[in-house]
Amino acid sequence: MADIEIEIDGNLVSAKAGEMLIAVTDREGISVPRFCYHKKLSVAANCRMCLVDVEGAPKPQPACSTPINEGMKVHTNNEKVKASQKAVMEFLLINHPLDCPICDQGGECELQDVAMDYGSDVSRFSEGKRVVVDGDIGPLIQTDMTRCIHCTRCVRFGAEIGGIMEMGGTGRGEDLKIEPFLAEGIQSELSGNMIDVCPVGALTSKPFRYELRTWQMNSVSNIARHDLTGSNIVTQTYKGRVKRIVAKDNDSVNETWISDRDRFSYEGLAHENRLLSPQIKVKGEWREVSWDEALEFAMRGLTDKVLNTGEANKLGALASNTATLEEFHLLQKLLREVGSENIDYRLNIKDLENTVTLESNIKLAGLEGVDHVLIIGSNPRLEQPMINHRLRKASLSGASIDVINVMAFDFNYQLNSENIVTPNQIAFMLAEVLKLILQASNAEIPEALSKIEASDTAKQLADRLLDADNSVIILGEHMVNNPQASSIAQLINEIAQQTNSTTLNISATANSMAGDLTEFVPGKKGLDANAMLATGLKAYILLDVYPHFDFHHPAQAIKALSKKDAFVISMNSFKDEAVAQYSDVMLPIASFYETSGSHINIEGKVQSFCASVSAPSDVKPAWKVLKVLADLLQLPGFHFANSMQVTSEISNQGHKQNVSNKKLDIKVKRSVNVIWQKSPYAVDALSRHASALQATKIGQMHSASMNKATAKKLEVAENDNYLGVPVSIRESVANNCVFVNTNKPIRGEL
Amino acid sequence: MISNQAKKQIDVWVAKYPIGRQSSAVMEALKIVQAENENRLSADIIQAVADYLDMPSIAAQEVATFYENYNHKSVGKHTIRICHNISCMLNGADDLVKYLEKKLGVKTGKVTKNGLVNVKKVECLGACVGAPMFQIGEQYYENLTKQKIDEIVDNLK
Ligand code: SF4
Ligand code: FES
Ligand code: FES
């Protein structure tokens, strides 16, 4: 749109025709008070606080809903404006309680600020005030609805961003109330953002209730590491504790929003289950010791067991995917320096010869501009909330979305088709699609595909990919242990190339991208995670590994690590029984927000962060521990004074995910496939210890879903235990498939 | 929860709106379903209507609580909807409300013991020329006097 000029308070300002006045004043730094306007939500224009004087208009106009015109003359601060603002303020305060001293929003309340600037000192209102009785809307959000000013930001957030309208305005006039349907509670995975958008103290953080005033806290920017977005956040701290987390704007990453997981997981930091002091095991007994002693013990263990005996290749390092870039780098460097390439962070994969390798070559912001999406094996809403948010935006602006999944999930946008396919048949289905696409361009059909007859479904999927100008194919976590995992990735890659689609690989989450970049994977002579445990090494260094949650076969892993002659150094933030059972040294390490480091998000963006708080008690950042351990082992090249120096040593040339060139396997098999998916709030140790998150519906997800036929085959009924998880029989699950979503430790194989 | 017959009636309304805008029929749908549920709506019913029209339950609840022609508590066989807005008020509506309450022996909002009648104060029904007025069922009664009220109310069965 063309640039036009308007005059605001006597100054000429250029802007785009059609923009709302408030967007222009905001950009120019001219303050216009507002309550209902929010830059990422639709315009409601119901609070009237933003009234300004437009020359020629008989009455003051709301800046949030007045589009600008060439030559418009606006006054934001004359007597007429001041009088209207004062009048509006007086009306807003009629029903608003004057309870700022006991309100959690005090000090960061838009109403309080605006009332200070524009309000009157004396109230002329002597009638009774409205009182609203509050219901409980869940463990995350505290309501005090008497304070609500009916701006409907929270209502619009649900309908427009969250994708489920959860809050609504019931009743009318004096009796209008903002509430969820019959207080059934709020369930969205993005619900915490309503706290951020609420301009008053009607919606506040429940875990933070009555804790502190905002001005008592320090605000430190940080990066959330739970998923592939690396959402920008502000951690608010007090006396060395993280007390609250709010979103930080970054349009290319998380816009203005963060997921509930990013917002509320900090509670885990103060959990009593934190590992607080270094411990060594002497004659089977745990003993608390000083760091010097513990590291000395660890160093001695390594030298005696493997280094002095010339068996460096009997040392292995395993890390969880939440490690920082620097931790990954230092641990692999340490291993390679002593001569071992047994390094791996891919602990949850059954067959590491058969993995999904696929490039991600689209930016987060780019996702909302695609016109077609094919999702394979993912429930993005709960697994990657911010990526899902971009997909929702794409969908709202007209993108068609096809899904191939093993069960039906609750998407918050319209799907073009939802194909529920048995895991063993997904490769075959993709092969059908590929064949059709090759046929469409008269390309040669490879041998492996020659005999395939394409189904109607495949035809529709192929047609839409061929028709689209700008499509993306997304590969999700549910495919990582598929018996044909690598073929699935190969097929997707081929289909994408043939149709000029981009690809997005969200099959490994948290900071896995950093694991790849730092080559935290076995070298040519090294063993992968499974091989290490199967051969049985003599010494291990484990970085924040919780076997019951991280390994695909916890029992086997624990058994291997518990072998008598294995010397195990465990670095953990939280205590864990199994870790205590197999380890010889336990070193307490800093958790999220207690250490500096970097996260790499899905688009390869390296986002570094400082520690917001120092780690509690005797806990140390893992990068320091690794550095000191390397020094004790007298390894060269570990002279780092801070984690930034580590970061700069890592060459960021991006990591190429080379698609496997193995023979395609598209045979349909008949066996039952179990897909193990940690429930969304159980993905890492920190979330698992965050009590409010755990109390939500999403936090409680714990079920093995399967259809009737599969249940019969496995001889289980509703609520029976299958692998320790209660069975839930649903026809929305593909045949021969068990989809386990659990927040509990896994015993036995999955 | 919603009878097949009601569904058919709702479908007629749904058909009047563009495809995908079925939720526009929510007002009529609530009215139809209310009629077959002793003239009142419950949470379950609202939920059922929302599900039938594929819309968020809270959005249906918003509509159901915004308009006063939906009842959320039990009502009598006949509801006397008496206007108390400006024109009617100036013409003595408040007195008539009191008179009705005394005559029936129940306060506004309550149902007579025999379950026959309840009185509800409503906003302007657009019949100011005939103020004061009330509505029973689909019928308007205008230029009310105490005497006229006696006649009308005594004839309610
Ligand atoms: S609860 Fe807050 S955000 Fe929602 S309408 Fe009320 S004041 Fe606005
Ligand atoms: S901000 Fe403009 S009317 Fe509310
Ligand atoms: S005021 Fe009573 S009908 Fe208009």
Mean pLDDT of chain A: 94
**What is the SS-derived class of chain B?**
alpha+beta
| Hetero compounds | iron/sulfur cluster, FE2/S2 (inorganic) cluster
Q: What fold name goes in the CATH topology slot of the largest domain in chain A?
A: Rossmann fold
Number of strands of chain A: 31
The oligomeric status of these chains comes to: heterodimer
Instruction: Give the distance, in angstroms, between the N- and C-terminal Cα atoms of chain A.
Output: 56 Å
Round the mean pLDDT of chain B to the nearest integer and report it. Answer: 94
What overall geometry of chain A do the principal axes of the alpha carbons give?
globular
Largest sheet of chain B: 4 strands, mixed
Proportion of helical residues of chain A: 25-40%
Q: Tell me what portion of residues of chain B adopts beta-strand conformation.
A: 5-15%
User: Based on CA inertia axes, which overall geometry of chain B fits?
Assistant: elongated
Question: Ranges of chain B with pLDDT <50 over ≥5 residues?
Answer: none
Radius of gyration of chain A: 28 Å
Strand order of the largest sheet of chain B: 2-1-3-4
If strands are numbered along the chain, what order do they take across the biggest sheet of chain A?
14-13-24-23-22-15-16
**Count of DSSP-assigned helices of chain B:** 7
Helical/strand content category of chain A: alpha/beta
Q: How does this structure look, described?
A:
The complex is a heterodimer of chains A (750) and B (157). Chain A is an alpha/beta fold. Chain A folds into five domains: 3-92, Ubiquitin-like (UB roll) (Roll), CATH 3.10.20.740; 133-270, Alpha-Beta Plaits, CATH 3.30.70.20; 289-349 and 513-651, 3-Layer(aba) Sandwich (Rossmann fold); 365-506, Dimethylsulfoxide Reductase, domain 2 (3-Layer(aba) Sandwich); 673-742, no CATH class. Chain A is built from 24 helices and 31 strands. Chain A has a seven-stranded mixed β-sheet with strand order 14-13-24-23-22-15-16. In chain A, strands 2-1-5-3-4 form a five-stranded mixed β-sheet, with helices on both faces. A five-stranded parallel β-sheet of chain A has the order 19-18-17-20-21, with helices on both faces. In chain A, α16 packs across α18 (554-561). Chain A is globular. Chain B has 157 residues and is α+β, with helices and mostly antiparallel strands. Chain B has a four-stranded mixed β-sheet, with helices on one face. Chain B has seven helices and four strands. The model of chain B has no long low-confidence stretch (mean pLDDT 94). The structure holds iron/sulfur cluster and FE2/S2 (inorganic) cluster (FES) (2 copies). One FE2/S2 (inorganic) cluster is lined by residues 83, 85-88, 124-125, 127-128, 131, 133 of chain B. Iron/sulfur cluster (SF4) binds at residues 148-154, 178, 197-200, 202-203 of chain A.
